[in-house]
Design a protein that fits this description.
The protein has a single domain, classed as TIM Barrel (Alpha-Beta Barrel), CATH 3.20.20.70. Helix 2 crosses helix 3, helix 2 crosses helix 11 and helix 4 runs parallel beside helix 5. The longest helix has 19 residues. It is α/β, with parallel strands linked by helices and about 220 residues long.
Length: about 220
C-alpha cells in the first residue's frame, strides 16, 4: 500500500480537479464494479464504498481489482475493528460519520488518509487538536449547510471540509463556493432505483453533470 503522503497527494490532486466523492453501496461485488466503472467513465475517480451491506468489503476488494483507475476508500467506518477490516480489503482511505478516535488511530498506524466526521464546532476543535486538517462534515444539510461551513472555516482556518448528507446536484455549487470545502460527498450520483434497473449509463451521465457543475462552481 502506498504511504499516506503519496495517497494524500493523489487524492488532493484528483479532487482539486473534480471535487466530488460519490458513495457506492451494494451487496453484489459485480454490481459495485459496474457502478464504479460508470462513475469513472463520467469523470469521478475517487469513490467511497460505504460499509452498509453484508458484502461491502467484498465489493471494495472487487472494485480495487477491476477498476485500477479509481482510488477506492471505505466509508461508514464505525470502529477500529472495521477500519482494520477495510484496510485488509484494500481501502486506500477511511471515512467515518463521526469522530471515532479508534478509527483515526488505525489510520495513523497504517499510514493511510482518514476523514472522520464532525457536525459541531466542538467536534471540529477536537479533530484539530488530534492533528487532523481535512474532515468530513455529516450530516451537512442538517448540521447547517453552507452557512455552517463558512462559520467553521472562519475559525478553523487550516482545516478543509467534505460535506456529505443532503448534498445534491441542485445545491452542489453552493457548497463548493465555500472556500474551506475541498470536496463534496454524496449518494445522489448512485440512486438505488437506477442501480436496481441496471441503468449504469444514467450514473455516467449523473457523474458527467456533476463534473460540469463543479467546473462551473470552481471556475
Amino acid at each position: 500500500m502506498a504511504n499516506r503522503s503519496v495517497l494524500n497527494g493523489q487524492i488532493e490532486e484528483r479532487l482539486s480537479r473534480t471535487p466530488i466523492v460519490p458513495l457506492v453501496q451494494s451487496d453484489d461485488p459485480d454490481v459495485a464494479v459496474c457502478i464504479t466503472e460508470a462513475l469513472v467513465k463520467g469523470g469521478l475517480t475517487v469513490v467511497e464504498v460505504v460499509l452498509r451491506t453484508e458484502k461491502a468489503l467484498q465489493c471494495l476488494t472487487a472494485i480495487r481489482k477491476a477498476c485500477p483507475a479509481a482510488i477506492v476508500g471505505a466509508g461508514t467506518v464505525l470502529s477500529g475493528q472495521q477500519a482494520l477490516a477495510a484496510l485488509d480489503a484494500g481501502a486506500a482511505f477511511l471515512v467515518s460519520p463521526g469522530l471515532e478516535e479508534a478509527v483515526i488511530t488505525v489510520a495513523n498506524t497504517h499510514k493511510v488518509p482518514v476523514f472522520p466526521g464532525v457536525a459541531t464546532a466542538t467536534e471540529a476543535q477536537r479533530a484539530w487538536n488530534l492533528g487532523l486538517r481535512s474532515v468530513k462534515v455529516f450530516p451537512a444539510a442538517i448540521a447547517g449547510g453552507p452557512a455552517m461551513l463558512k462559520a467553521l472555516g472562519s475559525v478553523f482556518r487550516e482545516m478543509k471540509f467534505m460535506p456529505t448528507g443532503g448534498v445534491s446536484a441542485e445545491n452542489l455549487a453552493e457548497y463548493l463556493a465555500v472556500p474551506s470545502v475541498f470536496a463534496c460527498g454524496g449518494s445522489w450520483l448512485t440512486p438505488a432505483d437506477t442501480i436496481a434497473s441496471g441503468n449504469f449509463e444514467e450514473i455516467t451521465e449523473l457523474a458527467r453533470e456533476a463534473v460540469r457543475l463543479a467546473g462551473i462552481a470552481r471556475g
